[in-house]
Amino acid sequence: MGANQKLRRRTVWLLIIVLAVGFGAVITRLAYLQLVQGEELQRRAIEQQLADTPISAKRGTIYDTKGKILAQSASVWQVVMAPAYFDDGAEGDEQRSFVASRLASILDLDEAELLEDTKQNTYYVSVKRKVESEQKEQIIELQKELAEKYQKPGIISLLDDYKRYYPYSDLASSVIGFTGSEDQGLWGVEYQYNDYLSGTPGRIISAQNGIQTEMPFDYNQNIGAIDGSSVVLTIDETVQSIVEKYMKQGIIDNQVHERGVCIVMNVNNGEIVAMASVNGFDLNDPFTILPDQKKEIEAIDLDYLIKHDYFEEDEDPYKLSEEKKKELIEQAQNEAESAALARNWRNKAISDTYYPGSVFKMVTLSMALQEGVVNKDSRFVCSGAFQLYEDTIHCHNTAGHGTQTYQECLWNSCNPGFIQIGQLVGKTKFWEYYQAFGFSDKTGIDLPGESEDQFFVHDGVEGNMLDTDLAVASFGQNFSITPIQMITAASAVANGGKIVQPHVVKQILDNEGNVVKNASTETKRQVISESVSEEMRGIMEENCISGSGKNGYVAGYRVGGKTGTSEKLIDVNDDGADDYIASFCGFAPANNPQYAALVFFDAPLGGNYYGSAVAAPVFASIMSEVLPYLEVAAQYTDEEASNIDTAAGAYSGMSVDDAVAAAERDGFTVTVKGEGSTVVSQNPSTGASMPTGGTIVLYTDQSGTDEKVTVPNLVGFSVSEVNGIASSYGLNVSVTGMVSSSDSTSTTQSVPEGTEVAPGTVITVTFSGGGIAD
Amino acid sequence: MLTIENTSRRRARDYESERRASSKKGRRKINFSLLNIGKGIDIPFVLLIFVLLAIGITMMFSASYPVAYYEIGDSYYYLKRQLIFALIGLVVMIAVSFVDYHYYHRFAAIILGISYFALVLVLVLPSQEGGVHRWIGVGMFGIQASEISKFAIILFMAHWGSRYYDRMDTLKYGVLPGAAVFLSTAFLLLFEPHYSCIVIIGILTVVMMYVSGIKIKWLAIGAAVLAVLILLLWVTGMLTYAMERMDGWGQALSDDLDRDMWNSTWQTRNSLYAIGSGGLFGLGLGQSRQKYLYLPEPQNDFIFAIVCEELGLVGAVLILLIFALLVWRGIIISLRARDRFGKLLGIGLTTHIGLQVVLNILVITDWLPNTGISLPFFSYGGSSLLTLMFEMGVILAVSRTSNIEKS
């Protein structure tokens, strides 16, 4: 073989190897990278090419039913860092420690942790959210410094962020709820409607080059944040405020240990107009416990540990090392703090279960009437106690109520009477009605934390009652329900027998104010007939006029209601006696019910624990302000008409003589203050509600406006006595509550004794009959 | 008998022609006249060069303008220079194509000497960025010493293989000179250091030996020695160590990189991002995103990553096909050369082009460590483009002697 032939052959081999192996390998490799791995590589490329900055969506607003803002997000800033831009080496280390120390001092953060953050190799590290404008200015200064010192302005940047504000701080706190550090709803409506409120975060996607300076062309994509929808509650701020004012007063007056609950509900459509767990907490600062709670927690000592079972049986608490003791106390304090927070946040209106007590008698009687097991000839004898097998069940009236009609059983709130009514209903029907009234299921209210009832269970079957169970259940003992279940059932008793769905959200509006969703009235079922409901309304109205519920009477509004005092079977204050829940549930007007309210005080320790004495007057105070506000038409008796309030006229701008004449013509007593010839202002102001024949003060210059009157004690008197005292002080009294009864005495006054007020100020005084046991 | 006779006669004729070719007197008249620019040279090969140069400069411009914009403030900075180099290069190529390559016979040893001198000189001169000693001269007038070495070794091996073609099957003539030249050059390159060039020179030396006709057994022995050496390095763990030291070779896409590794694999990683982003059809000419300061020096060794990003797999494969055609045409030219020197010279230079292309792409796809192999006709750089065009000129000169039909 010739050398040339060999060369030729070998060259051909070479060509084949270079083309087939070399180029073949290269093309295979490229195809693998571009086709198989392409997507992943492209994703990673885009990740670095695009500065992808999240933009917070503005959280929607929570409005009350009248459009008042209950929760709102305001603009603040978020500080972010792009540590990938730090240089390498010693220069970079210097930049890092500079940035970490400056950020730590501006934003009050831990410097060591920040230094760790600066070592990450990313373009986005969130340094701090919800930065206020003062700190934002300092961050801008820092950016300038970074630009001048290291030519690296892009390391720190500011993004829009939002902070939640609650203008009414603790109002309806357990209903509205609050948000967490990431703007996520944690409790209440904020939690329940988080998906609507939170909106969709946007992104700014901008092309960045490898050293993050501007690109020579525009390459920005802005996916705007979609702001959250707004939520309109059925809660009315005014009603809620009235409710909380009286509930707070009731808690103080009755030394209530475990807080109080009040729900005001529209009986026809299920809208919750007010829902209060008092005392609440400051929504703007939900993670701080109350000063009293703090004091208690700080006082935790060895005795507390012993009492709360922090030791094993074989441990001797007194032989603990100091260190161990400190550790245990700290643990106990942390647990106590968590418990205190949980307690503050707890929405008792839906989370607490309690024995409904005598309030439940309206349900029992409704069952009996619907089943037709009682009629006008039925009689129920009470001897003060009821003997059932070995058990003796006492009536609150140990002397006995004698022979009663079923109406009288309710008016007397007679336990033996209701045991007999319950027996007529029977266990099976009782359980069926219990379910039908909605007690066996959660109401499904649109709030988090609703509890379930606890009814009798025997042999593993719920609703399987013994005779004694039926006996006590007919007057509301030994089974637990939630306040929201009770008021829903009471609404059904009042509204013609319909179980409506209670709800707190009326409407959802998108970020442009368009209605996204309307809550409609949802009627679950008819549980009693319209005629039974009508009869119940009459019985319960009469109960508030002359029966056990008369302290709940509200002049002019035909209130129907029922008191309740239920045993807690818990001794909250360690005084050796079990404590009670005092409650009152009523509705108005009885001829055409519109609103129901449930007032509930958990463990009143002020000596009086009856629902009639503790809860009913508060119910009356609340309703007397709420019903006129809600434009429920008043229907006064003649006697009440004399105490009717009228609106103060407009006298400002008139000459003194004309004004006095006009005010007297309107039926007011007039006091003129000052030397001027023209009236410049008046108290009560124009349109304010004041009693007919009350005193109106007309000011003719500024001299008299500083004059103050000290409010006297108006509690513990009859109506005429109160009017006398008030007029001697130059004050007006608006009378509310049970005034028709001969033994009415004033129980509360809207402005506390000792307060300095202007003459002519209207003070609402609530009256009630004597303490009636139920 | 006939075979033997034929073979020996053919040998005698071959030898005679080689002898004649290497002596001035016996040279035949070939069309090296300046007035016959188009005559004699291989037109398809020239066309392929023009096509590659046009695509190469276009892509170099596309890849370089963001860097030029940011770092120099003139988007056309690299384009303008590369165009000038290309024009000079074309002139050089045409001029060289008129030089009868047989002159190089006598310069083979001298150029090899210059190569050694340059390799030593470059070590004495101050180092460049990254602490390497590769360049002689500065800026536009700089040249990599290894560029000289590659040409010098091809020329020497062609010279030697044609001069002693009948003794190439011996150890003394076939193997030892090539091995000696390679090992000595490689030794000097170790100090630069320039490992990729050692690989290229090694492969070129072996290729030249192989086509020159050395016994396969020597290649087999060489391969065995290499295998044992690698095995030894592997067993002692030095290979792993070396691989780790090679700037995170093969780990560019690892999710678990410390900051140093992240930085050292930055270029390769971004090359892979660019290639992957291209997909089948690419982002479109000029649409690369990775060239915006992500891929460092996109106009140099990693230019093909930008090509892949902009033109996709389809564009990349088309360009590779043009390269393959160039290689194929270069081999055809070489095989048809009148004499053995021309054949070997052509084969060596053509293989060099093919080798550069393959190795360059293996580097940018992270199959080889990132060691500085430029892509012919594409990568920016005056001296390498001029060297390349000079080599193309030599191949064209060879083509004038080949018996390819010419228009």
Give the key terms.
heterodimer, A: alpha+beta, Penicillin-binding protein 2a (Domain 2), 5 domains, 5-stranded antiparallel β-sheet, 21% strand, B: 407 residues, mainly alpha, 14 helices, globular
Report on the architecture of this protein.
The complex is a heterodimer of chains A (774) and B (407). In chain A, 37% of the residues lie in helices and 21% in strands. Chain A is an alpha+beta fold and 774 residues long. Chain A has 5 domains: 3-36; 51-231, Penicillin-binding protein 2a (Domain 2) (Alpha-Beta Complex), CATH 3.90.1310.10; 292-344, no CATH class; 357-635, 3-Layer(aba) Sandwich (Beta-lactamase); 645-768, Trypsin Inhibitor V, Chain A (2-Layer Sandwich), CATH 3.30.10.20. In chain A, the strands form 11 sheets. In chain A, strands 2, 3, 4, 5, 8, 18 and 19 form a 7-stranded mixed sheet that branches. Chain B has 407 residues and is an all-alpha fold. In chain B, strands 1-2 form a two-stranded antiparallel sheet. The longest helix of chain B has 33 residues, at 303-335. At the A-B interface, helix 1 and helix 2 of A face helix 1, helix 2, helix 7, helix 10 and helix 11 of B.
Percent range of helical residues of chain B: 55-70%
Which CATH architecture of the largest domain in chain A would you pick?
3-Layer(aba) Sandwich
Question: What class, by secondary structure content of chain A?
Answer: alpha+beta
Number of strands of chain B: 2
Into how many domains do the coordinates of chain A divide?
Answer: 5
Strand content of chain A: 15-25%
CATH class of the largest domain in chain A: Alpha Beta
Categorize the overall geometry of chain B.
globular
Quote the average pLDDT of chain B.
83
Superfamily (CATH H level) name of the largest domain in chain A: DD-peptidase/beta-lactamase superfamily
- Specify the number of helices of chain A: 24
Provide the helix percentage of chain A.
Answer: 25-40%
Low-pLDDT sequence parts of chain A: none
Major sheet details of chain A: 7 strands, mixed
Low-confidence stretches of chain B: 1-5, 24-28
Distance between the amino and carboxyl termini of chain B: 42 Å
Q: Report how far the terminal alpha carbons of chain A are from each other.
A: 128 Å
What's the SSE pattern of chain B? Answer: HHHHEEHHHHHHHHHH
CATH fold-level name of the largest domain in chain A:
Beta-lactamase
Largest sheet of chain B: 2 strands, antiparallel
